[in-house]
Write a structure and sequence with these properties.
This protein is mainly α. Helix content is 54%, strand content 6%. It contains 13 helices and five strands. Helix 3 crosses helix 12 and helix 9 runs antiparallel to helix 12. The protein is globular, with a radius of gyration of 21 Å. The chain starts with a strand and ends in a 12-residue tail after the last helix. Bound molecules: tryptophanyl-5'AMP (TYM). The site of tryptophanyl-5'AMP has 26 residues, from strand 1, helix 1 and helix 7.
């Protein structure tokens, strides 16, 4: 029986995956690989929309693959690949960018945030980023896209582009759906709990990285910003810092924030912070060890990506061939395939 297909990706920004990435996205990736034909990739072509160091990008890409494996992705159950190994993604992105309104792209909040940060250095690539992301999804005819909440707007654009293309050129794309988790879809910065935990935050103090020394992470939890009234209650509007800790604890231990609040009621914030730090370290320390193990075996990582790339090219190449025909490009009789 064929399984329904899903796809998702994570940018290799910096050397470590953070807790927001895990709770919002990767935790569900690990669960879903059993019931879906799952494809997971590193969008390295997206990474060059910000200033990068080439050697660092190469190293971080492998480090992310190692961390994804350590967190539970299993190449026997899913396809892992690197975006730049599949030419079809960029080929499809061009076609989709010609269907995307300029105003529509201008409304993307991630573009607004990132271009504010990049200022004069903002590139056209950053502006058209959502078209490449739509291509990443539509090229694979995926039904489901497991992501954190910050990707919802990009997913809405992807759905609109799929519907628009199908309407104009005939049924070609599966219209995909975003899949968000209940607890952890938006993890906030431990120091600035009204901002999402993000690799581009101005300070490291509020971000928990899997590759950090676990002692450093434990300290970040213990010194997380909360409030002064001391009442343990899940109330994101009034108590963003505390509620963030309750949500993280809930997501890590597969319960609800309300349940955790009940458990620590009357106990003050100290015990909650200490126990959360311990729970994280118990989970993250072996992940870090396993990652280092994978990084000692780079030939195995290369093999996984080579096999994954082959499978990805097969699927995405077939979609691009259909798209090229649908939009009216003349068949290229000099070539057997188009991927
Ligand atoms: P990226 O690399 O910023 O993040 C990877 C995944 O982690 C989720 N995430 C969070 N979830 C909860 N709380 C947070 N604080 C948090 N921070 C990040 C993100 O929602 C994401 O699911 N544009 C994408 C990469 C991409 C992609 C794709 C994803 C490119 N093409 C196609 C899916 C399908 C990005 O930059 O994610």
């Amino acid at each position: 029986m064929t399984q329904p297909r899903l796809i998702s990706g994570i940018q290799a920004t910096g050397s470590s995956i953070h807790l927001g990435n895990y709770l919002g996205a990767i935790k569900q990736w690990v669960q879903l690989q059993q019931d879906y034909e799952a494809l997971y990739f590193i969008p390295d072509q997206h990474s060059i929309t910000a200033p990068i160091d080439p050697a660092q990008l190469r190293e971080n890409t492998l480090r992310y693959v190692a961390q994804l494996l350590a967190l539970g992705l299993d190449p026997a159950q899913c396809t892992m690949f690197v975006q730049s190994h599949v030419p079809a993604n960029a080929q499809l992105a061009w076609v989709l960018s010609c269907l995307t309104g300029f105003g529509e792209a201008s409304r993307m909040t991630q573009f607004k945030d990132k271009s504010d940060k990049q200022g004069e250095q903002t590139s056209v690539g950053l502006f058209t980023y959502p078209c490449l992301m739509a291509a990443d999804i539509l090229a694979y005819q995926a039904e489901l896209v497991p992501v954190g909440e910050d990707q919802s707007q990009h997913l809405e654009l992807t759905r609109n582009l799929a519907e628009r293309f199908n309407h104009r050129f005939g049924e070609t794309f599966v219209v995909p759906k975003a899949r968000l988790v209940k607890a952890g879809a938006r993890v906030y910065d431990l120091r600035e709990p009204t901002k999402k935990m993000s690799k581009s935050a101005s300070s490291e103090a509020g971000i928990v990285h899997f590759m950090d020394d676990p002692k450093v992470s434990a300290k970040k939890f213990r010194s997380a910003v909360t409030d002064n009234d001391g009442e343990v209650r899940f109330d994101p509007a009034q108590k963003p810092g505390l509620s963030n800790l309750l949500s993280i604890f809930a997501a890590l231990t597969d319960t609800t924030a309300e349940e955790v609040a009940l458990q620590y009621q009357g106990g003050g914030y100290g015990a909650l912070k200490v126990d959360l730090a311990e729970a994280f370290v118990a989970f993250a320390a072996p992940v870090r060890e396993r990652t280092l193990g994978w990084l000692d075996n780079r030939a195995a990582l290369d093999r996984i990506l080579a096999e994954g790339g082959e499978r990805a090219r097969e699927i995405a190449g077939a979609t691009v061939a259909r798209v090229y025909e649908a939009v009216g490009f003349l068949p290229d009789h000099g070539r057997s395939g188009r991927s």
